[in-house]
Design brief:
Layout lengths: L4 E13 L4 E13 L12 E3 L12 E3 L2 E6 L7 E5 L4 E13 L18 E3 L3
Antiparallel strand pairs: 1-2, 2-7, 3-6, 4-8, 5-7, 6-7
GO molecular function: extracellular ligand-gated monoatomic ion channel activity; transmembrane signaling receptor activity
Protein name: GBRD protein
Family: Belongs to the ligand-gated ion channel (TC 1.A.9) family.
């Protein structure tokens, strides 16, 4: 198994719908893992890789469990960032907008507070 570190950076909360029990948000999903086959020692510099290189890499199969819909941003180019460190650590970031289910308790409306989760898993998890 490959250990993958995950971090979510919330760019925006775009919409909240109490009627549909959902919210829409844009996030940067940052993932990193080590692939020793890609390590190098001719420089200590981190290499920025072209997003077309992604097709040649193993990528985690992370998905949003409670997503109703999700899409990657690709205007004007795919919003992906790939960096390779000398020790073989790959940093992979993508921008995603997703509409996510949230079971809201509106019994105290208009003084209610909601806690909406963003559940991430691996398909092989």
């Amino acid at each position: 198994p490959v250990n993958v570190a995950l971090a979510i950076e919330v760019a925006s909360i775009d919409h909240i719908s109490e009627v549909n029990m959902e919210y829409t948000m844009t996030v940067f999903l940052h993932q990193s893992w080590r692939d020793d086959r890609l390590s190098y020692n001719h420089t200590n510099e981190t290499l920025g890789l072209d997003s077309r290189f992604v097709d040649k890499l193993w990528l985690p199969d992370t998905f949003i469990v409670n997503a109703k819909s999700a899409w990657f941003h690709d205007v004007t180019v795919e919003n992906k960032l790939i960096r390779l460190q000398p020790d073989g650590v790959i940093l992979y970031s993508i921008r995603i907008t997703s509409t996510v289910a949230c079971d809201m308790d509106l019994s105290k409306y208009p003084m209610d507070e909601q806690e909406c989760m963003l559940d991430l898993e691996s398909c092989k998890g």
